[in-house]
């Protein structure tokens, strides 16, 4: 049964008793044409991902795996060539009016606060910009003060007339977060939110995001290459490789009992890992040259060691594609070897990992 919302978009109604995810990607594909006749880069190559109300999901993977392209698609900054993005069960419409309304409910927090803030604008101007863009008709000063206070800058009036160069790195990141909070969004997308901060400040910002979830019911997608950060902040983890989610589940499932060889390799380089780090062979992922079969197989330590051959799946690893994992999957993995062995190795072997302490 379908309905139409006020923007004219078709809406599939959720069956009684089933809670719709707040944000949902279904079969999303995004590609970019290559330069001078080069092959098309398949940045997002079939992704399902759900984020529930009040849930923090960590999207994890190395550079070039498609994390940022997926995040930009979820924000409505990129339009998928296939699949769809839905918010509250309503497919995202791409006309300017609908996108403006959507971006009031879903806000972006970038990794570099120095680059995100105009050095010529005061803190007040930076935080109030969103209110002015969206035609806020309430008390602007009160809204800015509330957002700064929630972001941990107190008393807020003390920061109104300061410029970015007068603030510490942690304070600048709090201003960026306040600029997102001032519109009272339901979800934020944080792209490497603490990557540029000193270790002493990272924990404070992560604690702030958790407090905002608890106090406001705020949902978040945290894009990161750092599995330690995911351990500290996320409810659920989605591991991405070469345009696909290859493993997903609760943070405890994925980070204490990793099943995919790629997840296990990423965990092995953390300081808390038991055993030596796994060194991946082959080239880093190239979205214009997605291999046949499992897209990780050219670098897979399990295939290289002969264990996949012993399990009778080496041929499948090289030739048979794997299905797209469902967006709400719990403890799911896209790996022929893990499926064949039922492996769920924990934190005692050389490729497992005890729960990372992260930051």
TrEMBL record:
BP-aspect Gene Ontology terms: peptide transport; transmembrane transport
GO MF annotation: an example: ATP binding
Pfam families according to UniProt: ABC_tran, oligo_HPY
Keywords: ATP-binding, Nucleotide-binding, Transport
Segment forming the signal sequence: none
InterPro entries registered for this protein in UniProt: AAA+_ATPase, ABC_transp_ATP-bind, ABC_transporter-like_ATP-bd, ABC_transporter-like_CS, Oligopep_ABC_C, P-loop_NTPase
Membrane-crossing segments per the record: none
PROSITE patterns, alphabetized: ABC_TRANSPORTER_1, ABC_TRANSPORTER_2
Keyword Phosphoprotein tagged: no
CDD domains from the UniProt entry: ABC_NikE_OppD_transporters (cd03257)
The keyword Nucleotide-binding is annotated on this UniProt entry: yes
Domain ABC transporter: residue ranges: 28-267
Family per record: Belongs to the ABC transporter superfamily.
Protein name per Swiss-Prot or TrEMBL: Peptide/nickel transport system ATP-binding protein
Organism of origin: Streptomyces wuyuanensis
Lineage of producing organism: Bacteria, Bacillati, Actinomycetota, Actinomycetes, Kitasatosporales
């Amino acid at each position: 049964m379908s309905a139409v919302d006020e923007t004219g978009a078709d809406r599939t109604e959720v069956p009684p008793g089933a809670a719709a995810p707040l944000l949902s990607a279904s079969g999303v594909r995004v590609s970019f044409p290559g330069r001078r006749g080069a092959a098309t880069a398949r940045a997002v190559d079939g992704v399902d991902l759900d984020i529930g109300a009040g849930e923090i999901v960590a999207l994890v993977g190395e550079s070039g795996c498609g994390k940022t392209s997926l995040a930009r698609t979820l924000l409505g900054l990129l339009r998928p060539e296939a699949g769809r993005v839905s918010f509250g069960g309503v497919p995202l419409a791409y006309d300017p009016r609908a996108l403006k309304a959507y971006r009031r409910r879903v806000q972006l927090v970038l990794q570099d606060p120095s680059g995100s803030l105009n050095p010529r604008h005061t803190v007040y101007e930076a935080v109030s910009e969103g209110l002015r863009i969206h035609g806020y008709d309430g008390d602007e000063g009160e809204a800015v003060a509330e957002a700064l206070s929630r972001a941990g800058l107190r008393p807020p009036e003390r920061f109104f007339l300061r410029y970015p160069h007068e603030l510490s790195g942690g304070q600048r990141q709090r201003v960026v977060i306040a600029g997102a909070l001032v519109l009272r969004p339901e979800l934020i997308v944080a792209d490497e939110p603490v990557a540029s901060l000193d270790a002493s400040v990272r924990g404070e910002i992560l604690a702030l995001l958790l407090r905002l979830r608890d106090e406001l019911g705020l949902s978040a997608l945290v894009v990161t290459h750092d599995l330690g950060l995911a351990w500290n902040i996320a409810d659920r983890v989605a591991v991405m490789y070469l345009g696909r989610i290859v493993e997903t589940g609760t943070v405890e499932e994925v980070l204490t009992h990793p099943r995919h060889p790629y997840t296990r390799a990423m965990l092995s380089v953390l300081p808390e890992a038991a055993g030596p780090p796994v060194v991946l062979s082959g080239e880093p992922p190239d979205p214009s040259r997605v291999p046949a079969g499992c897209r990780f197989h050219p670098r897979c330590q399990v295939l290289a060691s002969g264990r996949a051959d012993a399990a009778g799946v080496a041929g499948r690893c090289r030739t048979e594609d794997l299905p797209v994992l469902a967006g709400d999957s719990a403890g799911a993995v896209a790996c022929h070897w893990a499926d064949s062995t039922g492996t769920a190795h924990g934190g005692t072997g050389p490729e497992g990992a005890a729960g990372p302490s992260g930051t």
